[in-house]
Amino acid sequence: MAGAGRRKSNNWALVAPLYLFTILFVGLPLIYMVYLSFMSRAKVWGFTNDFTLQNYLQILEPIYMSTFGTSLKLAVLTTAIVTLIGYPFGYFMARLGAKAKRLMMIGIMIPFWTSSLVRLNGWIIVFRSNGVLDKLLMWIGLTDEPLKLLYSYPAVVFGMVYALCPFMMLSVYSSAEKLDWRLLEAASDLGAGRARAFFDIAFPLTMPGLMSGIVLTFIPSMGLFFVADILGGSKVVLIGNVIQEQMTKGRNLPFAAALSVVLMLMTSCMLGLYRKICGNWKGLD
Amino acid sequence: MELVNITKTFHSAQGQTEVLKGINLTIEDGEFVTLLGASGCGKTTLLRIIAGLEEADTGSIILDGKDITALEPYKRDVNMIFQNYALFPHMTVEENIGYGLKLKKVPKAIQHKKVEEMLALVQLEGYGKRYPDKLSGGQKQRVAIARALINEPKVLLLDEPLGALDLKLRRQMQLELKRLQRKLGITFIYITHDQEEAINMSDKIAVMHEGVFEQVGTPNEVYYEPKTSYVASFVGDANLLRIDGELYALRAEDIQIQEGSHCTHKAKVLEKSFAGGQLRILLELSDGQQVTASRFGIDYDLKEGEVTQIGWSRAQKIK
């Protein structure tokens, strides 16, 4: 009995740092942020402890609502494109030989070793007027003049897709890697053509990978303000950009906090939905 | 079904491996044929070629007078039972079994009825709503059989289907498979490395070694009249004995010890061991060759080291 008791307390000692870390760096800031969102803006900097709902009411103004709308649309579009590219990529990568797999993996991982800011700035060189892409297209003869690709909506979408694709690829890959390919043979033996076998067998069994890929893409794409900043200039304003502006130039911390809380609620809903869908999946593992 | 001169070579970084070196086999309708061989002899590759999951380099497969060599697997009247069962984990037992019918767009009511019939046939009534991970090995095996048989294939291919089961269950399933096969009259092509299983179940055994058939025949022929030394030693563990420059296969149970006038060979008892219902006696002949004899019962009044006379009633001359 005493032994069991000691073991339990030992467990506590091991787990305590984790709890402490989570409370200090996740829990408290979160509470602080929610608290802040109900306070009033100070005249010059910071905030005053006067309770108000003004920050949340302000979000209802058309300009902010439409920014949420733009962000949501961009996130959906990004997630859709990332899925269309990332799913087949991850799926077929899992079917490669061991050596080819390793090469692909290295190819996906290497960019992660460079700061994403540096990589995005690299794309400026490609996309800007008379940049690498313009010159190439004009040299081939597809266009006669620079396309002005930089600081446009498509450029932002491209940047988002570029930044988030690896998450989908790796997520689908890890799921497809576990798939027993003999199941596809069995389906084909029972009369299913290639497409049918894929949709009946491979697709449902890689669904967990696809779903977690979607979560890993959708949630960050709501908040990746620096992509819009670097490749969209001032033309594409996302909710992440507004939060950043309000915190820095706007000096309105309570309003920035309120925006963050709403953004967080939206993404939480997304996660809840994910849990619900995946919870309904039977017979996996 | 007829297999004509099938060859297959696998290419890899290490070079080429000739897995099948010209396979010819005629299988009658409703016959139970076993491909017997050690692992790596090419039997699984041959089965996969018949199923259409692998392509032969040369040769053809004729089913019911039609050449099906180039047909996609899903267009062949052939179904396979995989070594690991390959049940779909995200479908219930019913859905697994009904999958083939669903693909053929058979009306739902008929699908349901046939699935129920199949569940009864493999004695799994009431298990329809379960998922495969809630089944035991033997039950999974039955589901796999039902899933294949519901399509009423002309030929059923079985890739070591009982390999993962324990001995008792394996014996029981052997009988059950044989019963099913007789009842349905479907041609079975069965793969195993277990010679006892092959002899128990088959109408015809093809002993396979390094990509060729060493011998094709009834269980009796393969057991009692082995044509090559490989067949003799692989099937039933026969003694190989060289007498006057000729090679003979000699079954352990055909060796007599001190029984009558034909026991003319002098031999020394080296070792006695009890192997479950059988006593195995290792003997050394005067020229140094060793043979194993077997006797029923647990005791035998010969002691190790004793010299005696042995003979045999039957010896098969082989190549």
Describe the structure.
The complex is a heterodimer of chains A (285) and B (319). Chain A has 285 residues and is an all-alpha fold. Chain A has a single domain (63-279), classed as MetI-like fold, CATH 1.10.3720.10. Chain A is 75% helix and 1% strand. Chain A has twelve helices and two strands. Chain A has a two-stranded antiparallel ribbon with strand order 1-2. By secondary structure, chain B is α+β, with helices and mostly antiparallel strands. Chain B is 26% helix and 34% strand. In chain B, strands 6-7-8-3-9-10 form a six-stranded mixed β-sheet, with helices on both faces. A five-stranded antiparallel β-sheet of chain B has the order 13-17-14-15-16, with no helix packed on it. Chain B has eight helices and 18 strands. Chain A binds chain B through residues 180, 182-183, 185-193, 196, 200-201, 204-205, 281-285, and chain B through 51-53, 72-74, 78-80, 82, 84, 86, 88-92, 99-100, 103-104, 131-133, 147-148, 151.
Keyphrases for this structure?
heterodimer, A: 285 residues, MetI-like fold, 12 helices, 75% helix, 1% strand, disordered N terminus, B: Rossmann fold, OB fold (Dihydrolipoamide Acetyltransferase, E2P), 2 domains, 5-stranded antiparallel sheet, 34% strand
Helix content of chain A: over 70%
CATH class of chain A: Mainly Alpha
CATH H-tier superfamily of chain A: MetI-like
Low-confidence stretches of chain A: 1-5
Shape of chain B: globular
Number of domains of chain B: 2
Helix content of chain B: 25-40%
SSE arrangement:
The complex is a heterodimer of chains A (285) and B (319).
Chain A: H1 2-37, E1 40-41, E2 47-48, H2 54-59, H3 62-94, H4 98-109, H5 116-127, H6 132-140, H7 153-177, H8 182-189, H9 194-223, H10 225-232, H11 239-247, H12 253-279
Antiparallel strand pairs in A: 1-2
Helix pairs in contact in A: 1-12, 3-7, 3-9, 5-10, 7-9, 7-10, 8-9, 9-12, 10-11, 11-12
Chain B: E1 2-12, E2 15-26, E3 32-36, H1 43-51, E4 58-63, E5 66-67, E6 78-81, H2 93-103, H3 108-121, H4 137-149, E7 155-159, H5 167-184, E8 187-192, H6 195-201, E9 204-209, E10 212-217, H7 219-224, H8 229-234, E11 239-243, E12 246-250, E13 255-257, E14 265-274, E15 278-285, E16 290-296, E17 307-312, E18 316-318
Parallel strand pairs in B: 3-8, 3-9, 6-7, 7-8
Antiparallel strand pairs in B: 1-2, 1-4, 4-5, 9-10, 11-12, 12-18, 13-17, 14-15, 14-17, 15-16
